[in-house]
Design a protein that fits this description.
By secondary structure, the chain is an alpha/beta fold. It is 56% helix and 9% strand.
């Protein structure tokens, strides 16, 4: 689902119309919200929406003076919680927003998502239709998540039946970290247990090595004492 944030309710209605006319989203795949006053509350609303992509206006306090953040800050906070989450920043002030977002390809003029019937001109529209870009980003994100989950599951299941080598174990932990960051650490107990299970064989090997080293050291000390 696409979630659009704007302080102007009328802009939200225009986005709903434009998304439907684009042919890339059904009416029930788009939701609009007015910004909450504080950033933390807005993040919670986004999480509750279970959206797959966030599109937000840059200026969120122009007509709502109680809003304490910009769309750029909202995107940065969202991606801090959920690494790689698809986000787009739309604005009438593109030059002002450029250079403030790490990926300038996520910044679009508002004309890009307004339908031809909205009364907006098309002189600033990008070559690739905006809603096609958004749909493509959702599909890419889904594919990346599936790949991470499948790679992790395959390696984890192997770890239950055989001892992984050091590179494989490190890869398993890296995949686990990536998955945890992508879901905001909200199910941290599961990754922690998986890490403990994955590290079990490796820790056993370390303990055996330590025990063997202790035995060898003890024998060396005894030999020195006898000499």
């Amino acid at each position: 689902m696409l979630l659009y944030i704007d302080e102007e309710a009328d802009q939200g209605r225009r986005v709903l119309l434009a998304a439907g006319l684009s042919g890339h989203f059904e009416d029930d795949e788009v939701e609009t919200l007015l910004p909450e006053p504080d950033l933390e509350s807005m993040i919670e609303r986004i999480i509750e929406s279970r959206c797959e992509v966030l599109v937000t206006d840059y200026r969120l306090s122009e007509y709502k003076a109680d809003v304490q953040y910009t769309g750029l800050e909202l995107i940065q906070e969202m991606q801090r919680h959920f690494e790689g989450f698809p986000c787009f920043l739309t604005t009438n002030y593109v030059p002002h927003a450029l250079g403030k977002l790490h990926d300038v390809n996520l910044i679009f003029p508002k004309d890009d998502y307004l339908s031809d019937d909205s009364g907006a001109g098309d002189k600033n529209k990008s070559a690739l239709p905006f809603f096609l870009r958004v749909r493509t980003k959702i599909d890419e994100y889904r594919a990346d998540q599936r790949r991470l989950e499948e790679d992790f599951q395959a390696l984890y299941e192997r770890s239950l039946n055989e001892v992984l080598n050091a590179d494989e174990l490190q890869n398993l932990l890296n995949l686990d970290d990536q998955l945890e960051r992508s879901i905001g650490g909200r199910v941290a107990a599961l990754p922690r247990l998986l890490k403990e299970d994955a590290l079990g064989p490796f820790n056993d090997l370390l303990r055996r090595a330590e025990d063997l080293a202790a035995v060898i050291e003890n024998e060396l000390e005894q030999n020195e004492a006898e000499d």
